[in-house]
Amino acid sequence: MSDHTYTFNVSMSCSGCSGAVDRVLKKLDGVKSYEVNLENQTATVQAGPDLPFETVLQKIAKTGKKVNSAQVDGVDHSVELPVA
Description:
- Strands 2-3-1-4-5 form a 5-stranded antiparallel β-sheet, covered by helices on one side.
- Strand 4 (67-72) and strand 5 form a beta hairpin.
- The protein is 26% helix and 35% strand.
- The chain is built from 2 helices and 5 strands.
- The chain is of the alpha+beta class.
- It has one domain (4-64): Alpha-Beta Plaits (2-Layer Sandwich), CATH 3.30.70.100.
């Protein structure tokens, strides 16, 4: 298995918003590197093979920020979270 690149379009209106996303990604096991870009409204995550897309999506969603769209390794992917 190889690493993955997860790209999220996240509604962030200020540095506090991007900071919240930054904090959850920093603590997430399996993240090799990441970049949160407030200007472009994106969060890009380089993830190891053991970190599922859904886990990263859920962590970002728990910040209260809306995830508008996402890609896995350059391919569009659903951002619908399963109902708990």
